[in-house]
Design brief:
Blueprint lengths: L2 H5 L1 H20 L2 E9 L3 H7 L7 E4 L5 E9 L3 H10 L3 E7 L6
Antiparallel strand pairs: 1-3, 1-4, 2-3
Length: 103
């Protein structure tokens, strides 16, 4: 944007939104999402395997003995991590592509 466009609040807002979305797409490059289910008793061993963008998201499931874990990892590490997650008793592991990560 040129200085005149940047001085216009409406145009500046539009430019900042586009920049945010572009940064989100760049941040997602080379990363994938993982979703999995784990028994509460196995949570610590599963978390020890998982690198995460910040911290994994952990949610309760309808069965109080089970939790859902969501995280973002480097795509190049998936082949190593999924077998380790299975060994730590994770189940229902789903890998999915990412389009954007807005931090």
């Amino acid at each position: 944007a040129n200085q005149a466009a940047w001085a216009d609040a409406w145009k500046r807002d539009k430019v900042e939104r586009v920049v945010m979305l572009l940064k989100g797409a760049i941040e997602a490059s080379g990363k994938v999402g993982l979703m999995l289910n784990v028994r509460r008793d196995d949570l610590e061993s599963v978390l020890a395997v998982l690198p995460a963008l910040k911290r994994p998201t952990i949610s309760n499931l309808s069965d109080p003995e089970w939790l859902a874990v969501n995280t973002i990892i480097e795509e190049k590490t998936v082949r190593e991590i999924i077998p380790r997650l299975k060994a730590a008793n994770a189940q229902g592991i789903v890998e999915y592509p990412l389009n954007k990560i807005v931090i």
